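Long-time lurker, first post.

We've been arguing in lab meeting about whether zinc ion would sit comfortably in this protein at all. Half the group thinks yes, half thinks no, and nobody has a model to point at. So I'm putting the question to the forum: if I give you the sequence and the SMILES, can you give me back a predicted structure of the complex? Inputs are below. Any interpretation is welcome too.
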Amino acid sequence: MEVDWSAVDKKWQKKWAENNDHETNSNDKEKKFITVAYPYPNSPQHIGHGRTYTITDVHSRYLRMKGYNVLFPMGFHYTGTPILGMAKRVEANDTELIEGFKTLYKVPEDKIKEFAEPVKIAKYFHEEIKSGMIEMGYSIDWRREFTTIDPAYQKFIEWQFRNLKEKNLIVQGSHPVGWCPKDQNPVSQHDTLGDVEPDFTEYIIIKFDLNGVKIPVATLRPETLFGVTNIWINPQVTYQKIKVNDEIWITSPECARKLGFLEKKIEVIEDVSGSDFVGQSAKAPHSSDSIVILPASFVKSDNGTGIVMSVPAHAPFDYQALVDCKSGKNKSINSDLLSNIQNIEPISMIKTEGLGNIPAKDIVEKMGISHQDDPKLEDATKEIYSKEFYEGILADNTKQFAGKKISEAKDEIKEWITKIDSADILLELTNSPVKCRCGAECVVKLLSNQWFLDYSNKDWKKKAHVCFEKMNILPNEIRSEFDKVLDWLRERACARQHGLGTKVPWDKEWLVESLADSVIYMAFYIISKYVNKKEINGNDLTDEFFDYIFYGKKDSGEIANKINVTKEKLEEIRNEFLYFYPVDSRHSGRDLVPNHLTFFVLNHVALFPEENWPQEIVVNGSVLMAGKKMSKSMGNIIPLREAVRKYGADPLRLTILISAELLQDADFNVEAINGIKNKLESMHENCAKTKSEEIPELEPEDKWIFSVLQNLASNVSQSMDKIRLREALHHILYDFDSELQWYLKRAKSKQRTNISGILHKILSSRVLMLSPFAPHIAEEMWEKLGNSELASKSAWPSSVGTEIDSKSIQTETLLKSIIDDINNILKVTKISPKKIIIYTAEQWKSKVYNSILKNVLDGQTNVGTIIKSLIANKETEQIKKDPDFVKKTLNDILSEPAELRKGRMSVGQIDEREIISSELSSLVKNDYNVELDVFSESDSEKYDPKNKAKNARPFKPAILIE
Ligand SMILES: [Zn+2]
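Top reply:
Settle the argument with this. Predicted structure of the protein with zinc ion, as C-alpha cells:
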C-alpha cells in the first residue's frame, strides 16, 4: 500500500501546530532544555545540515515521550561578513553567484535584485530554512525565534560584552590574527573559503650584521645559533634591501610583505641579487666570528626571510648543502671560496642519548640522501628535531646555557638574543594558502590595540576544564579533543570592522565578531518569547534587566518600573529562566568542536553560576552523497526542501540517521531511501490490518514474543539514552522481524485465531518507538491502530507491561533449534520425510549439563578440569563412561549467547519431552506434513532402529528422520 508522503506530512504538521504541541512553558514537570547551533542564513539548508537538526529533534521527541517538559527553540544567526560579501557581489553583478541563486537555490529573480542589501539575503534564506525545518517535522517552539540583529538581542550582547570586560576577560592588546588584506578585517573559520581556521606559527628572527646591514634568518630553533657555521642564501632569488623601522635589512620580497603586517614600518630601498652576497661574511650576535654566506638551492624565498642560518651538525638540510658546496659542483662558488670553505666543519652543540656527535650527518648517510633537494630531508629534519627537543642537553660550547635541556632553555635563549638586540619575530601561516571568502589570500597580522577575548587566561581555562569534566559528552571519544582545544586556545580577536551584528558597546567603530555573539544565546530563548509577545520592549532592555533575569540582582519592582513592565512579568521571566537553565543538551556538527562549542563552555563558565553550566554536548559528523563529499563544485548538494518534496520527511530523516552513528560520516543514497520507504509502507499496511482485540490467556509462544518485545524496548531505550540512533533504528525496524516470523508460524501451526490483540500490542510498541524518528508516519500508523491520542504525546514504551519470561525464551530457543536441525538434515540427505522421531536426553545428563553450565558461568571452561570435578561428585560420576559427552556439551554451551546461558541457569531443568510433544507436533505437521514421535533416551519401549537415542544431549535432542 503506497503512502502519500506529502499528504501525511502536511496532515500531522497541521495537527501539531493546531494543538501548539511544541510550545513549551515552565510547569511542575521535570524539564529538558535541548538546543542546536542556530543556522547562518546565507543559503538554503541541504541534507548535510539536516543531520544535526534531525538528531536534535529525535532527541527532543524521545525525551518528551519519556515524560520530560522539553524545550527545543530556534534562532537565526545574521552576524558576520559572508552575507555582506555576497551582497557586494550581487551589487557588482557577479554572474557566478547570481546563477547559483537562480539554478541551485531557485531564488526568484525579483528577490535576487533585492540582494544587494545584506539583510534581504538573510531574511530570504531565514524564511527558506524555517520552512524547511517545519517541513522536516522539527518540534520547535517557534514563539521564541529571533535574529541576532534584533534590538533586544543586541542589548543582550552588549550586556555580555560589558560583563566580560568588567571581569577582565576582554582585553585590549596586540596579538596576531588571521587577516584579509582586502577587507581589512580579521578572519576566522566562518570567513574563509572551505571554512578553514587560519593557523600560524611564531618564528624567531636572528639578525646577523654585514657592515651595518642586517642579514635576518628565521628559525624555530634559536638555540642552534651556537652551532652556526655559515649562512645560506639562494643565488637565484632577487632579494630586497628594505628599511625596517630604523634598520636596513636584506630579505625576500615575500618576507618584506609579511613584515608589513606585523606592525613594522617597511620601506623598500632596492632589489638585490642573492648571488651578490655569496662569499661575503656577516657577524653573528653570539661571538665575534665572521660567518660566511654560501649559496643553497633548498632555501625558498616564501619561507621565513628567504635566508637561513646553517647548523650542519643538527640540521640535515644544512649538512647536505654544505657537502654539496664543498664538492665544487656549485657554480656560484669560485675557486678561492671553494678552497676557503674546505675547513668548515659541523659544530656539535647538543648531546642527545641515542644520537651521535653529528646527528645530521648520521641520518643523511643512513637515509642515503645525496643532494639538498631530496624530499627525504624533511623526514630527517623532523626526526632529529623532536628527539633533540625532548631529550637533548646543551653542550659546553653554549656558554651560560650549557647543561640545560633544550625544551627548557629555548625561551631563555630567545630572551637573551632579544636583549642583545639581535632578535625579532616573524609570524607565518602554517596552513597557507587560506583564502578569504572575498577571494583574497589571508595573512597573519599583528593587530594592535584591538579587543581580544582573553582565552589564554589560565583561571578561565581551568574553570572550563572543570565544566567539561562534569559534562556528559556524546560520543565520549571526542572529550580529549575539547581538552586539547582548551589548552592551545590563545587571545582571540572579538571585533570586526564590517558585517552585520552588534556594536562593541564601548568602541562603536567596531562590531562584535560572529563567534563571540553566539555563545550564550541559549539564555536569550527565555527572553525572546516575551519580546515576541510584545510583553517587553527590546529597546528598553538594560544591563540591570539582564542582571535580574540571570542573577536575580536588585529589586524586581524597581527594575520593572524603569523598563515599563510589571513586577510580576519580570519575576515570571526570571522564574522561567531558573526553570529552563542550564542547557541540558547542546547539539552541533563536529566542525564546531575547536571553536563554537568550546567558546560556548568558556563563556558560560565566565558569565553564569555553576548551577547554570551546560550539562551535555552531542557532536555529529557530516553527510556524504553516495560516498562523496557534498560540495557546490561537485554539483551534488541536495537542498533539504527539495528532498522533502521528493521523498517525504520521514524516509529522509531515517535515511540520514540509519547509515552512521554520531561521529561517523553518514552516507545518503537513493537505494537506502527506497528501502526505508518500503519498510515504513509495509509497517503502515500492517497497522491498518491489525485489529485491537482482547488478549487471550497467554500460550508459551505469546509469553516468548512479549519477552522478546520487552528486550527490544530495553535495548532501544539504552541506545536512545546514548544517542546511538543508528543502533536504535535497526532494533526498531529490523531486529524484531525474524522473531515475529517465528511467532506467526507457531500461531499458524496451532491454528490460532486469537492473536490479533497480541499483534496489535506489539505493533503499538514498535510504532511508539518509531515516533521520535518518523513522527508523521508514526502518527498515521498510530491512528490506524485505532488510537485517538497522538503517538508523540504517548509514553515511551520502556516497559511493555509483561515480565520477561525466561522459561518461554528457553522453550522457544529449543524448538527453533530443533527445526533448524531437521532442516539441515533434510538439506544434506535430500530425503522427503515420512516420519520424524526425536529422543530427549536421560535425567543424569541434565544434572551433568547443569554442573558444566555452572562451571562456565563461573569462568571455568577447561574440559579436563571440568571432567575431574564431575568425576569427583557422586551425582555426576557416570560421565566416566562417556567423557565425549562432556566435551560436546561444553561446546554446546559455549556456542550460545551469554544471555541465554544465564537464563538457563535461572530457569533450571525443563521437561523437554513434554514441551516437544505438546508444542512441536503441530509445527512438524505444518512444515513437513508428517507425524512426530518423541521418546526419552531412557524409555525402554522406544523405537530406535538406528541407535540414535544415546546421542541426545540436553537442549540438543537426537533426531531420526525416515
Ligand atoms: Zn576578504
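For your lab meeting: The two ends are 44 Å apart (CA to CA). The first helix runs from residue 5 to 18. Whichever side wins, do check it experimentally.
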